Amino acid sequence: MDEPAVDRILQAQGGVIARRQVLASGLDDDDIERMLRRREWARVHPGVYVDHTGEPTWIERAWAAILFHWPAALAGPSALRVHGVRSAGGVLSSVSTEPIHVVVAHERRVWAPAGVLLTRRRRFDDQVQLRLSPPRLRIDEALLDVAAGCRDEPSAVAVLADACQEGRTTPARLRATLRSRGRLRHRRTLLTVLDDVADGALSAFERRYLTQVERRHGLPTARRQMRVATRGGITYRDVEYTDFATVVELDGRLAHAGSRRRWDDFDRDIESAISGQVTVRLGWGHVLEPCRTAGQVVRLLRSRGWAGSPVSCRPGCPLEVSERAAG
Fold first, then answer.
1. CA distance 282 to 275
2. Can you tell me the distance from the alpha carbon of 94 to that of 235, in angstroms, rounded to the nearest whole number?
3. SS3 32
4. pTM to 2 decimal places
5. Can you list the positions of beta strands (E) in the chain?
6. What does R_g of the chain's alpha carbons equal in angstroms?
7. 327 exposure class (CB count in 10 Å sphere: 0-12, 13-18, 19+)
């Protein structure tokens, strides 16, 4: 018997081991039963064991699901979690009852035990990273799957944009991956989202301003995420109407929190004023009333020299009403 080999496997797999691995190490079913009787191991799934009898942690459940379906890999939000994507949330060692998402090759016929959600992929070998610990779907594949499963567009944007902001991937990589995929829910929407992310709309909040306020009402096209050197260092302006010396900063509740950030925002506004620009700050409440906000931005831009004509997004659009009143 080679118990040290078993110990090495357990250590490498978060305290989880499969029956086939035990047998390959020189132990047998009697040894497994002895470990179970002594309560040194506990059965998680048929033929898969963990090296304690308490509640399995999330990472132990993840390993157990992979080993039960082997060859398999974590998928969807489970893959994002081990990739370290912030939006996946959680701590890997925490106890969690959320389902473990696992992917296997398309041709396999396997069943999913309780607590496991199983999907199949035709290009399994190309799309997974079996040598990582634990094995997982490639990050771009997992991101697109999670985004496609979102109920609404802002949520899908947040998944992709957060990963790009964190430097986990790029819009170009995501677009290339999406083009290589077959049918995918919300494919057209996701392509549009990725185009917007590439243009600098790096959050659901920013994209809502871009699509619902600026584009939908015919405002001039702004420059986004402009890099600016200030006395305090390098900063970025969310939206800049360069020809009209106007900056719009989009203060999403989660994106701009804390007193330190508020001081940084104040410093940026001062730098803008010194350079002759005017800065306005919008919050979620503004972009949730896009027509009214568009009307206010139109007034501001006109005061700065814009001679264009905005458009109403629908009959009765508040922008149309304000334009008639102004005329």
1. 21
2. 36
3. helix
4. 0.71
5. 16-18, 42-45, 48-50, 73-74, 100-105, 116-121, 128-129, 136-137, 223-230, 233-241, 246-250, 278-282
6. 26
7. exposed
Q: How far apart are the first and last CA of the chain?
A: 91
* Burial (Cβ within 10 Å: 0-12, 13-18, ≥19) of residue 245: middle
Distance CA 318, CA 263 (A): 34
- Cβ-contact 58, 98 below 8 angstroms: yes
The type of residue at 299 is R
Helices (H) and strands (E) in the chain, counts: 15, 12
Q: Which of 122-131, 249-258, 295-304, 308-317 has the highest mean pLDDT?
A: 122-131
Q: Do the beta carbons of residue 49 and residue 16 sit within 8 Å?
A: yes
Of the candidates 284, 287, 296, 285, the one whose C-alpha atom is nearest the C-alpha of residue 219 is 296
Question: What span, in angstroms and rounded, lies between the C-alpha atoms of 310 and 294?
Answer: 9
Residue 144, amino acid: L
- The CB density around residue 141, as the number of other CB atoms within 10 Å, is 25
Cβ partners under 8 Å of residue 59, min gap 6: 14, 82, 92, 93, 134
- Measure the CA–CA gap between 146 and 186, rounded to whole angstroms: 11
For residues 86 and 182, what is the distance between their CA atoms, to the nearest angstrom?
Answer: 27
The secondary structure of residue 249, as a DSSP letter, is E
DSSP state of 310: -
In tens, the pLDDT along 28-42 reads: 999 999 999 999 999
> How would you classify residue 73: left for phi > 0, otherwise alpha for psi between -120 and 50, otherwise beta?
beta
Amino acid at residue number 319:
L
